[in-house]
Amino acid sequence: MLNVTKITDYLLVYLLVAFSGVPFFYKAHIAMLIVSLALPAFIFVRRKRNVDRFFIYYVVFVLCIQVGQMLKFYEFPIQTYLGLHVRVLFAYLSIKAVGKKMMTYYVDILVFSVWTSLFFYVLSYVGSIEHFFENSIAPLFSNPLIKETNYKIWPSVILYTFNAQGEGLEWLKRNSGPFWEPGAFSGFLMVALLFNIIISGQLNNKKNRILMLGVLSTFSTSGLLVLVVLISFYLVLNRDLLRRYVLVPIVVITGIIAFFSVDFLGSKVVRKMSYSDATYNTRFKSAQIDINDFMQHPVLGMGRSQSTRFHGETEARAIHRNNGVTNHLVMYGAIAFLIYFYLIYLGFYRMCRVYDVNRRMAFFALIIILLIGFSQIYFTKVFFIAMTLIPVLYCKDEEVHNT
C-alpha cells in the first residue's frame, strides 16, 4: 500500500533540489516556482504547522537588506526581490511540512540520482546511443518556460543532463547527474554525505559508498579534493587512535599524490589559479573581482540586480562569476553573509546534538559547505536557503522520532 505522506514528503524535498539545480526546473521562469509554491503551502496548512517567530525575523531581515540596497542604489528590481522571497517561502514551508526527516529524504534522493545517472553515464561512452538521447529523447523534455541566455542549455531528460565533456583527457566522460554540470552534482552529493554521516554516525555504509561513487564519477576537481578533506575530517574526529593517526596521513598523502599525478586535477587547478582561462572568469579570478567590489560596498552589498551587481555590464564573459562564496559576500554584504553561514552551522550543530555526534562535526561541515561553494553559485538556490532554516527543526533538546 502506498504511503501518501511519505510520497508527498519526498516530492517536496525533490522540488527543493530540482528548483536548485535541475535545469528543467531552476532555469524556468520564476512563475513556475510561484505556482509550485501552492503544494508546500497546502501541506503546511493541512498538517497544521505553526509559523516560527524565527522565520518572521528572517523575512524582516531580508526586507531590511533589500530596502537598504534600494535606498542606496535608487533602484527597485521587483522581480529580483520577489524571487528571493518566493524562494525563502518555498524553502521554509517545505522543510516545516516535512520536518526532521527532510535530511534523510534528501540523502535518499541523491542516492537514487547516483544510480540513475550512472545508467546514462555508462551509455554516454557509446556515441550513437548518447546522440540518440540528446537529439531524439531530450527534446521531449524541454521546458517552454526556459528562455535562451548567454549560457548553453545542455540536453536533459530531467533525471540526467548530457554535459559530460572530458576534463583534460578527451576520452574521459563526466557525470552531471540531473544537475547543470558535473561540479554542481558533486556539491549536492557532498551535502548528502554530510547529512548521512551525522544521521548514521558512520562514513563507511552503503549509502555513503554510493554517494562517494557518484562524486568520483563527476571527475570534478573541487569535488574530489573536498571529498578527501571530508574523509580526513571524519577520521580526525574518530575515537579510534589507529584510524586517526594512521589513516589521516594516508588519505592526505594519497590525495596529494593523485593531485600531482593525474593531469586533469593538477593542471586544471594551476590553470585556474593563474587566471589563464580565456573563456570566462575562473573561480579565483571571480574571487578577486568580487572582493574588490565588496570593499566598496561592505555593509549592504551590491544586490542581485545586473545593473548594480555588475555596474551595468552586460557582456557574458565580464559578468561571469563561479565563486559562490565571494559572490554571496558581495551581493548581500558582510552582516548578511555572516548570519547566512552561521545559520547553516547552527543547523548542523543542532543535528549533531540530536544524533549524538561530535559537535566539532558541525564546524567541519561548514568548512565543507564553503569549499563546495568556492566553485559553484549555490547559495542563492532554494535548497541552500532551506539549509539556513534547518535550525527551526531542532529548536529543543529532543530525540529524533521516526514519524
TrEMBL record:
InterPro entries: O-antigen_ligase-rel_domated. It is a multi-pass membrane protein. GO terms for cellular component: membrane. The keyword Membrane applies. Its main location: membrane. Residues 211-309 form the O-antigen ligase-related domain. The keyword Membrane applies. The chain crosses the membrane at residues 12-43, 55-74, 80-98, 105-126, 179-199, 211-234, 246-266, 329-349, 361-379. Keywords: Membrane, Transmembrane, Transmembrane helix. It comes from the Bacteria. This is O-antigen ligase-related domain-containing protein. It comes from Saccharicrinis fermentans DSM 9555 = JCM 21142.
